[in-house]
Design a protein that fits this description.
The chain has about 210 residues and is α/β, with parallel strands linked by helices. It has 2 domains: about 1-50; about 70-210, Orthogonal Bundle (DNA polymerase, domain 1), CATH 1.10.150. It has 6 helices and 7 strands. The protein has a 3-stranded mixed β-sheet with strand order 4-3-5, covered by helices on one side. Strands 1-2 form a two-stranded antiparallel sheet. The longest helix is centred in the first third of the chain and has 38 residues, at about 1-40.
């Protein structure tokens, strides 16, 4: 009888120890599971598969477009650095001339309104001394005559070269002709220049004027 009771107590003691170990293990599992769930949430689908939900990320565009509108004007004639320049709406002629290096020694400002407001695509032409008297209308300023056409009596080499088919040699020939023969009386007189044929003239006829 004593042996039976002793064996029974030993068996209960072993069962109690196993229960204690099991409780410790379950407590450990319950402690680490919430941390795992926070790191990568798992979404169960209807088919029994599992999908990991990744945190949303937003791309930030580091380059922001400028809100300022710009205009482009062509400054030519008697300036130190002819070319196309970028300005702001509302800027005036004198600002465009300053960007082109200022007036050259031969520049004539007597018929130029430097306070005129610039428009996009406008041509700012500064004539040489003596060129202003070529205008048929004394009331007409260089600002008025230079907006739509290339004046073959005033245009510098760079401006003449903006015309289709007019390269450096033909531009120099036009300038040499008018210096020798005087200003062109009409724009079709341009065909008197060596190298300017009728076909080329027809291409640029609507782009030029002879003031």
């Amino acid at each position: 009888m004593y042996v039976f009771l002793t064996s029974l107590f030993e068996r209960k003691d072993r069962v109690a120890k196993r229960k204690g170990i099991l409780l410790i293990f379950l407590s450990f599992i319950l402690w680490i599971c919430p941390a795992c769930a926070k790191e990568s949430p798992i979404l169960e689908t209807g088919e029994g598969s599992q999908t990991t939900i990744e945190p949303e990320t937003k791309e930030v565009n580091s380059s922001e477009e400028s809100s300022d509108d710009l205009i482009y004007v062509y400054v030519c004639g008697q300036v130190n650095a002819p070319g196309v320049y970028e300005l702001l709406p509302g800027d005036r002629w004198f600002q465009a001339v300053e960007m082109a290096g200022g007036i050259s020694e031969n520049g004539d400002l007597s018929c130029i309104n430097l306070a005129s407001v610039l428009g996009d695509g406008e041509r700012v032409y500064i004539p040489a001394v003596g060129e202003s008297e070529w205008s048929e209308n004394p009331e007409e300023t260089a600002s008025d005559v230079s907006k739509d056409y290339v004046d073959i009596n005033r245009a510098a080499r760079e401006e003449l070269m903006t015309l289709p088919g007019i390269g450096e040699k033909k531009a120099d020939a036009i300038i040499a002709y008018r210096e020798k023969e005087g200003p062109f009386e009409s724009k079709d007189a341009l065909m008197n220049v060596p190298g300017i044929k009728e076909g080329l003239y027809e291409k640029i006829e609507d782009l030029i004027e002879a003031y």
